[in-house]
Amino acid sequence: MIGGSLGLALRARAPEVEIRVWSRNEAPLETVRQLGFADIASTDLPAIVTGARCVVLCTPVEVMPALAAQFAASLSPAAVVTDAGSVKGVVGDTLPPILGDRFLGAHPIAGSDRAGIEASSADLYDGATCVVTPTETTQPDTLAVVRDLWETAGCRIVEMTAAAHDAALARTSHLPHTVASALAACIDRSVPDADWPHLAGGGYRDSTRIALGHPDLWTGILEANRHEISTSIAELTEILQNIRAALESGDTAAIHALLAEGRSARQKFDVF
Known about the structure:
single chain, three-stranded mixed sheet, 8 strands
């Protein structure tokens, strides 16, 4: 979905650009051809990257190093490589030794609970934030190419370090997904009525929607950012324990204060 949406966005906004798409399997490429945004679609990775000005890795972060090793020798001297992974520390550690300063990490903060090329949308990135993580060795031309790529797709660019990105996204993205999955599992385990979905309404739907994300993808994300996510779980657990203690002691004022704090925090997102 991430790669397909980028292709559709670039085709719509920069029709003069040649777009090539690689996949390890032929089946997704058939959908790519049907969507009509690729000039070339192939399973031949070296052929796809040869002569490219910019290569974008839209894959799970754990497979990026092996892919980079496969195509590094085929890159032109001026080629820039970036990615769309939601964890930046691990790619910042593993890809530069393979690709050098030509690599610059990025993360477009956009998506849905759907997956696959079939879920692609040309407007997925409209108004979305894309975090770019330059380092002290990043060349100005490399930064310019990556910024231009994601701005053309419709994103607003924010520059920050990989460590700051991973700390923030652990709490704004990875923790919410973990909590949604845990909440859905908890309810399914705890409600004795086998027909409990008939008793659930909008609150359940809204708070667990992202649990529909593919577990293969999210297992990789959680493992890649495990330290920050573990810390964020501890932070949430402390708040939940405070609520539990207030409930057990009948401390109405404490319960109200915690709920009011949550409401105020959520309102900041609506204003933004």
